[in-house]
């Protein structure tokens, strides 16, 4: 069986990534009591400009405290703000598991941040290459055209997240969705981000769900994300965590199917196609089964 619950976090799997303001140790402490696989301490949108220096210091303290088994990421400010390197220099002594880069335009941005991380890891006594990078990859109109450039850009790249809030402003749109269904520009960004992540062989991370109290809608959106190939979802409220984690768990029927597929190929390792329960299966089915069971 695949790892789940606390075991999933210990195995480094990500289903839920909960944003926490970088200037709020209280909210960080509350989030640390939950079961999010990763906490993203935010130095960008949730912190006003004049509080960013204080937030950097508080974020370093949060990283050093390591109150649970959560992976700890830091969302730095975007490269076009001129604050990214200052953010990184302030927080890297806290040994974050990863950095979230907002408003990323493509692989060149990842390479720039990776070069900075290499120097800062060395300065902080961190094994060079261990800090991962997750990019928020669809926040501007121009970023959509860079999605194909993430493949092979850096071994640090761990995931691509799509986001709708800033994209809406970039497009000059008046609304993003009707009745809980995204309009076509946002569906396009979502789908292209999913494909870019698959091409780069990194995690595809679904955007935040902003209708805080609509838990049924959250579950529906998360199950649709998993169905389409996303492996994680970003969150903005602690009460969303358990619903998202459960929605990303394989069903019992999926587990049984996956185990049967893997067993069939194990018994006939030289076969490219097999017959199973009256259906023809091949290597793509094997890869799907391995993904369901957390083996790939």
What attributes characterize this protein structure?
296 residues, TIM Barrel, 2 domains, globular, alpha/beta, 8-stranded parallel barrel
Describe this protein's structure.
By secondary structure, this protein is an alpha/beta fold. The chain folds into 2 domains: 16-249, Phosphoenolpyruvate-binding domains (TIM Barrel), CATH 3.20.20.60; 254-293, no CATH class. 42% of the residues lie in helices and 17% in strands. An 8-stranded parallel beta barrel has the order 1-2-3-4-5-6-9-10, surrounded by 6 helices. A two-stranded antiparallel sheet has the order 7-8. A two-stranded antiparallel ribbon has the order 11-12. α8 runs parallel beside α9. The longest helix has 18 residues, at 107-124. The chain is globular and about 65 Å long. Mean pLDDT is 92; it is low at 1-12. Its cofactor is Mg(2+). Pfam families: HpcH_HpaI (PF03328). One of its GO terms (molecular function) is magnesium ion binding.
Widest sheet: strand order? 1-2-3-4-5-6-9-10
Bin the helical content: 40-55%
- Number of separate domains: 2
CATH-defined superfamily of the largest domain: Phosphoenolpyruvate-binding domains
Mean pLDDT: 92
- Spell out the helices and strands N to C: HEHEHEHEHEEHEEHEHEHHEEH
CATH architecture of the largest domain: Alpha-Beta Barrel
Radius of gyration: 20 Å
Which segments are poorly predicted (pLDDT under 50) over 5 or more consecutive residues? 1-12
Overall body shape: globular
**Termini separation (Å)?**
13 Å
The CATH class of the largest domain is identified as Alpha Beta
Q: What is the makeup of the main sheet? A: 8 strands, parallel, barrel
Approximately what portion of the residues adopt beta-strand conformation?
15-25%
């Amino acid at each position: 069986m695949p790892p789940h619950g606390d075991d999933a976090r210990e195995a480094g799997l990500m289903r839920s990534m909960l944003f926490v303001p970088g200037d709020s140790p209280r909210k960080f402490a509350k989030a640390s009591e939950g079961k999010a696989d990763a906490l993203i301490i935010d130095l960008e949108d949730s912190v006003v400009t004049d509080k960013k220096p204080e937030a950097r210091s508080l974020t370093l303290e949060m990283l050093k405290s390591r109150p649970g088994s959560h992976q700890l990421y830091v969302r730095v400010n975007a490269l076009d703000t001129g604050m990214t390197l200052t953010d990184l220099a302030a927080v890297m002594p806290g040994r974050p598991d990863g950095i979230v880069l907002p408003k990323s335009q493509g692989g060149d941005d990842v390479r720039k941040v990776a070069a900075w991380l290499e120097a800062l890891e060395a300065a902080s006594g961190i094994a060079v290459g261990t800090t991962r990078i997750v990019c928020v990859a669809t926040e501007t109109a121009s970023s959509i055209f860079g999605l194909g450039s993430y493949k092979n850009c850096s071994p640090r790249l761990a995931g691509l997240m799509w986001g709708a809030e800033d994209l809406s402003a970039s497009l000059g749109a008046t609304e993003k969705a009707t009745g809980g269904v995204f309009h076509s520009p946002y569906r396009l960004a979502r789908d292209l981000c999913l494909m870019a992540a698959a091409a780069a062989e990194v995690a595809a991370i679904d955007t935040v769900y902003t209708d805080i109290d609509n838990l049924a809608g959250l579950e529906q959106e998360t199950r649709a994300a998993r169905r389409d190939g996303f492996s994680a979802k970003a969150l903005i409220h602690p009460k969303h965590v358990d619903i998202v984690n459960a929605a990303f768990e394989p069903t019992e029927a999926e587990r049984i199917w996956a185990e049967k597929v893997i067993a069939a190929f194990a018994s006939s390792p030289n076969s490219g196609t097999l017959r199973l329960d009256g259906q023809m299966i091949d290597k793509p089915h094997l890869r799907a089964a391995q993904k369901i069971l957390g083996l790939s």
